[in-house]
Amino acid sequence: MIPAQIFTQINDKCTEGLALALASNDDGAVMVLQWCNKAFTKITGYSAAEAIGQRGTILIGPDLEQGVHLYIIEKLMNWENFSTKAMNNRKNGELYRQRMSWSHLSDPATGNHWWLCSIIDLEDEHTAPSRPVSREHASSDPESYSRVIERVHRLEKENTRLHALAKSVAKDANEDALTGLSNRRHFEVELRTWIENLKTHGTEFAVLYIDLDRFKSVNDTLGHDAGDRLLVSVADMLRELTGESDLVARLGGDEFVILKPLGTSALNISSLADEIVQRMQAPFSCDGKSTACSASVGVAIANANMEDPEQVVADSDEALYHAKSQGKGRWSFFTKEMHANSIATKQLASDLLLACERQEFIPYFQPLIDAQSGRISCAEMLIRWAHPTKGILPPAAFLETAANMGILKRIDKIIFASLHQAMSHLDETGVILPRVAVNVSAARLADPTFIHDIKSSGVDAARLTVEILESVYLDRIGDVVRWTIDELEELGVTIALDDFGTGHASVRGLLEIKPAVLKIDRHFIQPLVGDPTTRPLVKSIIGIGKGLNMSVVAEGVESEEHAWLLSEMGCDYLQGFYFGKPMSEHDLQDRLIETGGVFWHRRPKSSDRNALHGIGRAV
C-alpha cells in the first residue's frame, strides 16, 4: 500500500500534469475526469474544481492540429496506450507545446476502465518545479486520498496481470492448439516477412507442403482421438527434423508446411523432404491397433529471380498434387511444366464456368446392339464439350477438372435437357431409339437432388438406363446411394453395372445392388479373337450374370469375329466401334434412317464355330 503522504507529495511536487478519467465501457474516447494534480491545473489553466466532472474533450484546444486530434480519438477508441507532441491551448487560449500521454487502466473489482493522462509543458520542462502548496488547495477530488491510493495500487497489480495475459493470448493466437506448431495465421504473417527479406536482401528459402495420404482412414478405423495423436506425432517428427531457423506450421486438418532457408545448396531441402517421406512409411500404432498413413510432400523454391514470390506456396501445393498423382508416399519438386499445367488448369476451369453459362455441353451416342437380331436396342449417351475454338472435346479433357470444381451437377442438368430434346426430335422424325443409357458418378448418386433432376428433365424413365461404374459401390455402398438406386427402380429406370471385372466388385456386391444389366469391361473382350485362353473367363462372367437373371452387355466389340463369338457365348447385347463410334444426334439419326435400325447381320463363320467348340471343351 502506498502511504498517503507519498501520494500527497505526488500531487503537490510532481511537475508532470496528471489526471484520472473514468471511461465508458463501450467507447474509450468517452470519459469524465475524476482527479487531477497541482501540475495539471498549472499547465492547462483549469482548476481542479473546473476540470473534475468534465468530459476529456476539454483537453483538446481549438488550435490542436486536426490530424493529431483524430489520432488521439482513434487510439482512445481502440484502448491503446500512446503519446503525442503538438501545439495545444490552455484554458485562456494561450498556445503552448505539450507532450500528452495516455495509459489505459482497468479496475478488476468493478470492471471499470480508466485513463491516466500525463501532460508535460515542453517549453517549461527544464524549469524548477512550482513551490508546494497546502493540501487544502491541491485538489477538490471528492474521493479521499487513501481511496485513490488504494485504487492506483490495485490498478498497478491488475495491469501486471493483464500484461502477462496479453502475452499468453498473443502466444495462443500464433500457435496451433493441438500440436503447438505455428498456426495458419502466424504462418501467413511470417511468410510475408520471409518474402520481404527475399526481395530486400535476396534471402532465398524453400517451402515444403506436407499432406498425410490416408489420414481419413486413421480417423475412420481408429477414431478421432487416434487421429489427433497421429497429428501430434507428425508435429514432433517435423520439429526433430528442422532447425531453429526453420518455421514449421500446421495449416489445418492434416496439412503441414515448412519454411526453410535455402542456404548454399538445395540438397538439404531434398534430404529433408526424403526423410519426412521415409519416416511416414512406418506404421502408426494406437492402443494396440496399427494402420498405415504415408505422407506426400511438395517442394518449391523462392529465389531472387522470381517475378511473383507470393506464388511459392501455391507452387509447393502444385508439386504436392503432382506427388499424389504419381502414387502418394513420395515427394516432388515444383517444375516449369507443373507451372504450365497449373495455368492450363486454371484456364480450363474458367472456360468450364463459361461453358456452363453458354450450355456448350452436348450428348453423343454409341449404339448397343441386340446380339441375336443385330437391331439397335439402346444408345449410350456420352458427354462432349462443343468448345468454341478447340472443337468437340471428349470427357477425359475436362470431367476431372469439372468434378474438382463441383460443377458436375450443372453439367448434368444441361445434358439431361439436351438428351430430352434429342429423343423428342428423333421420335418426331419417326426413327426408332428404344432407350438411352447415361453414366452416373458416385457424387451424383450420393446427391439427394439427383432423383428430382431426373424427374424434371422430361426424359421418360421407362426409356432410361442409369449405368453405375463398378468402383462407385464396391461392397459397402452408403445408405444415400442405396436409397437413390431404389428410387430409380421405382421410377422405372433400368440399373446397369458398368465396367464389370475391373477389380472392385464381387458377387456379394452384385447381390446387394441387383442391377438389371451387367456390362463386361472391354479389357476382357478385346483379346478374345487372338487369344483363345481368355474365352473361358469371359464365359464364366456371362454365366454369373445369367445366373443372377441379368442381361449381359459386352463392351469393346471391334470386329465381326468379336460380335459372333460373344453372341454365341450368350451375351445379350454388344457395344463397340464395330457398330459405330460415339456420334452426334444428327449422325445417329442418319444411321438409323440408313439402316432401319439394323446395325449387324449375324453371319457365323466356320472358323468361329470351331473356336466355339473349343470354348465348350475348355469350360
Quickly describe the structure.
The chain is of the alpha/beta class. The protein is 44% helix and 21% strand.
Any key phrases for this structure?
alpha/beta, 5-stranded antiparallel sheet, 23 helices, 21 strands, elongated, disordered C terminus
- What structural category characterises the helix and strand content? alpha/beta
Rough outline: elongated
Count of strand segments = 21
Uncertain runs with pLDDT below 50, 5 residues or more? 126-143, 606-619
Ends distance: 103 Å
Please tell me how large the radius of gyration is: 40 Å
Instruction: Give the helix proportion (percent range).
Output: 40-55%
Strand content: 15-25%
Tally the helices: 23
Mean pLDDT: 84
The major sheet is characterized as: 8 strands, mixed, barrel
**Main sheet: which strands, in order across?**
13-14-16-17-18-19-20-21
Question: How would you portray this structure in words?
Answer:
The structure is a single chain. With 619 residues, the chain is of the alpha/beta class. The chain is built from 23 helices and 21 strands. The chain has an 8-stranded mixed beta barrel with strand order 13-14-16-17-18-19-20-21, surrounded by 4 helices. It has a 5-stranded antiparallel beta sheet with strand order 2-1-5-4-3. A 5-stranded mixed beta sheet has the order 7-8-6-11-12, with helices on both faces. Strand 9 and strand 10 form a beta hairpin. Helix 7 crosses helix 8 (224-241), helix 13 (408-429) runs parallel beside helix 15 and helix 21 (560-569) packs across helix 23. The longest helix is centred in the N-terminal third of the chain and has 30 residues, at 145-174. The chain is elongated and about 120 Å long. It starts with a helix and ends with a helix. Residues 126-143 and 606-619 have low confidence and may be disordered.
